[in-house]
Amino acid sequence: MPTCNILIIEDQYKEKALLLNALQEQGYNVEYAIDTSKAIEKIKQDVFDVVISEFQSAQINGLEIVQNVTLLSNSPPVILIAGDCSPQSAVEAMKMGAFDFFVKPIAPGILESSIANALETRSETASRPISKTSKYQIITENYHMKQTMSLAKTVADSKAPVLIQGESGTGKELFARYIHQHSSRNNQLLVALNCAALPDGLLESELFGHEKGAFTGAISRKLGKFELAHQGTILLDEISEMNLYLQAKLLRVLQESEIDRVGGQHPVSIDVRVIATTNREIEATIKEKKFRADLYYRLNVIPLKVLPLRERKDDIPLLAKYFIKKYNQIDNRNVKSISDEALATLMAMAWPGNVRELENVIERAVLLCDGDTIEPNNLFIGESHKVPQHLTSSLQPMEGTLREMERKMIFNTLDKTNGNRTHAADILGISVRTLRNKLNEYKQANITQ
Length: 449
What we know:
Rossmann fold, Helicase, Ruva Protein, domain 3, 3 domains, 5-stranded parallel beta sheet, 20 helices, 14 strands
């Protein structure tokens, strides 16, 4: 394991010693500070991968530490540990940018798991200094996608549940964050949870929280994601993977606006906007008795469907340009463009991994490109992807903006198919509806071949 630097901020000798010894035994390089000012000074002077801090004591103010750390250009994740606190304090800390929040005593393995997650997050953000705005930006000129964005923006300020369906890698989470950003809740938390990533027992606790003593190992109260998202938004990713028992509990949350902690005696009122995503056909899972129809109807108040990349290939030139710029910044490269032949190769592919797969291909191409233009041989390693002749010929020659290249490709393909839109759409890898919409756009803008 690579050496990782952890800073402990704790003014109680016994607790500091316990943390120090436990983390050093796991191979971490650990330093400590005993008050807020010394901790902030250390964080500014040295590079730490994770900060673990007491939430509140005579000499330590965890919120002040979080506030100062988040101002740094390469800020480490901060894990806060409290002797006792209110749910509002935990929510405030998370809103300010704390990575995780625990109430003492912490069950064995829980802190270690949080540190591992923090280090993974640290690795991703340290190597990809992209602003939050661009990270969650939806890149499209596709008519259908713009219509979906328009609908999402229209309903953003309501509390109505939203169900976003689409294949993996299409950008469902981007739409969820787009809705949150355009709502009046955007100054509150958006809390995301992948329902497929946790076993059922742990998922219930993560969603609804638990009381001390609710089960073996529950040695303190835990706030669930719904409580942390109070007055904000909760994103339930891959909702179709949730078991039927939890689906019933979720249905009650949507109906009553209250949750029951595991082992709790009284319900807790919440104000949360629910957005759910799935890469499955929900109607099919309902027929298979794997998803409750009543929950589906409750979630599907605002249905959004995100197109797979193969049905919005008119966005490939735009996305390629965006990812080239992104990875120029990340990898300190200076790639200026992509050749027509390389672009034709991308247009000819099926993209089962959708936009995520395209991004990976462009990232690799930027790294492999030894000039200022990406060529077909930069796209793949040890693979041969020949471009169909009709696509290559329809692209030559191509000059101008990406929008002009798209237009030329569409009109050239229509020429070669004698105006047969069905055949042209098949060659271009887009739906007939998408082709029709693009032609209507050109007509409204008085653009001709």
